[in-house]
């Protein structure tokens, strides 16, 4: 192929010509630099590239600039001029000239790329094919407002059906005859009173809407007759942990041999639950540290058995229901349908009372101040118990709560950098837990200092807080002072702040003052003598906080929807609708009702079920739906992909962390939290799917609230996704014709076809192997038609239409072309309909892109960018270089096909080619040379010759590379760099990449990935941290600049038009260079943003709309020091409990497995982008 002859623009300037600079960059004088004596000064020249983005302005007196170095002589390229002290500039006509070489080479590269894409890409031809088949499809419009309102309504309906199921659970369902006989055999028919049944039937027949979910549990418990002498063999239930305990020889139940009361069930696989289940029974899970044979637990199992029929009836009315769960305040979990418990590898620490959904349903938001006595008497084991207790207390808080932790002796001070109440989110709690470990015991006890600090914290109205339940939690070993004057000053007579006191450790101090403090301030007193008592006693305060909810009655019976969290039974990410269940028993005839919460009822909704209500394929590859809650945490978002989840904590990804944050998105987030509707078009940054690139794009945001919930729904659409194609293949003959091009028998002539693994039909078997999936698809299509009711006609018709359209592209363009002539490995087309056609067929063997176009980085980036998008093979610096011997390594070049039909613009497909890397590396050298024809002999240019240097002949002197907009190497004139194509250029040439960055050829955007998991650090490094990736983007401006290291050297860069490539030419230094700092494009550990600074500017949020924090009728202790009158066996008194004579309380049992003193640090769930610094200041 003939290469166009080079033509230069302006003639050479005379000696008086001034240097030029890009606008916006001021003139800077040349700086002297010392060169090694081994190489004499050799002036090189270079003409500035054509203007790309801004007009070129003359700046008299301007010169290229260099960084100061420890050398006296410096060289630079600046329009074949060298700075002369006397005259400012001078021309050296005897130096080796490049003249307008780079401008010319860049133009030749652009022409070659454009020519190949015009001939083989088939953009214009594919446009014509679509227009020729205009009768086979319709252009539909996405109307954002109508679309988002419809989806919001569908989600509202889905959640409302679950709410109705919760309401049905509150209706009394009479036991079956078999159950009735079993109940009668055990004892008095407590909940078969004729009067009660008649009343309930009457209320149900009138359809009283107030009979909701928890009524069933409340009435069952109210009718239940407490049995002091109940035995384990009296209770028959399915113990969900029984099978795991039988397999564990160290299990206490195996040792005791008590399995007579446990049912043995058969299970069937259910894909909806991702588990084996039994629909005839409920399952029971009891925490490891609770004795199953205690009277409390046995009575709890007895009355909750009646819930089984309610669960079954619920599922009969709504077969889509997932887990239905009752979490008891005693720790018992009863769930339906029954399934074996997922036994962890270590000891099972699951306790329903610490689950996010239970905590949210059992109490209103909290403002909590934890004060810890660190006087000299608190040392050794007692201090360790306090530290662990504080950490466990923090785990009982949710994102709706606010907290601070302080230590005190003679003075009080915060344990961390937080000087006021902060949101109890995962990151803030981590700061507290780390800070607590640094507490040291010294000084004397000063309760007054501790309580005054705590009350001041709670009275600070200048900060964001929960503004609901206010409480002080004090951990101490004991003391004599009652600090009554402090309570009189801050809390009496209204007692709006509850005080909970914890006596920690084994000692002989008088605990009466601690009991008095708690009971006179509507709190509670607990003892923590050993590590086994920590978990149970740091969570029982929730029972006290539930009292105002019980007294509020029906007003508090409101369904709340939780944050996203990981289901403990393997369902994946879920949200849960919760309702509190109240104790309706009375202490005696004519006395007040009990003030305790029995537990929380919950029904799970899988996120996947909500996602199915959103349009997946009409929004295009870059359109999506998202939803957030009142905290700004996402419920739905394509970037919600937690790599690891902690079942004890919810998955809390803020909307501004799910996307790249900017001011416009902050406004959108605030409006959504406030429950407003809105629409906004913004220019924003988006990260590519492979997380290697950042693009600046236009997006349309539309949002509405989801009624009857705390969620708000948003829709994001690119402008080119306003319209989409809908196939109209009513002609069955044409359907069959196009379908035949999906058959493997057609691949040899028509190219290989990959189909996106979508849910085309209900009976289609999914497979990760696309060949197998295609086989399953073809077999199903031989049984059903594309118009079948069991199939998604939209997906199926569009797939078949795109099969035919891409086949016509093969017929019109690809089949008659010789790919080898242009050094192409393959040509391809991918469509919105889910077709990826690769030609020729043999190229499919080395095709590594995902068969789902919407999940392919090249596809999504091509839609967002004009022109040709280069994608080199992805390489990891830790892996070995590319193997070029087999001639299958290629570079993808793709571009979007834009259609304009009746004034409506859309982009339904992407086409491209796969370049042979080695062949194009050779071609790159020829195109960046001074040869006018590839057969022209090479002409060597030496330092003293008068010819022009180029990238082919002078590859020992010049480094010529193409780098993409992410900073990855695409092509090089250095043969030894060919196997490094696809690597971040800093790994290839750290100094040159740093120069490009320092001179604004690339800019960076810093963000954190809070969902990532870090690999363990090697020995010698302490702590766990998130990982980060440096993702640069090409700046909107380019400037000529110097960079110097050991020796001064010049580079010149120019962006190739209509591509994402930067063409760089640099002089190769003769001496070895020290890497002053390497830009990182790999996962690196980071502590993330500084939390102490972030809490000073908290993100906007709103808490729950209703608060139950204070009720004048809540009872408090008097002289007897009894905070409440407990129901039998459910609440312990404030006075020091005497050792029980029999097992009639929730007894704590020691673990039978050896528990390590310190668990392995959990990996942080965030990752940092774009952090780098010179090696002299970085330790990792």
TrEMBL record:
Residue span of region Disordered: 1-38
UniProt key word Flavoprotein: no
Annotated localization: Membrane
Record's bilayer topology term: Single-pass type I membrane protein
UniProtKB keywords: Calcium, Calcium channel, Calcium transport, Disulfide bond, Glycoprotein, Ion channel, Ion transport, Membrane, Metal-binding, Signal, Transmembrane, Transmembrane helix, Transport, Voltage-gated channel
Pfam families according to UniProt: VGCC_alpha2, VWA, VWA_N
Entry's Gene Ontology cellular component terms: voltage-gated calcium channel complex
InterPro entries recorded: Ca_channel_alpha-2/delta, VDCC_a2/dsu, VWA_N, VWF_A, vWFA_dom_sf
Domain VWFA residue range list: 367-545
Principal location class: membrane
A GO molecular-function descriptor: metal ion binding
PANTHER family: VOLTAGE-DEPENDENT CALCIUM CHANNEL SUBUNIT ALPHA-2/DELTA-RELATED, VOLTAGE-DEPENDENT CALCIUM CHANNEL SUBUNIT ALPHA-2_DELTA-2
Family: Belongs to the calcium channel subunit alpha-2/delta family.
Protein name in UniProt: VWFA domain-containing protein
Originating species: Monodon monoceros
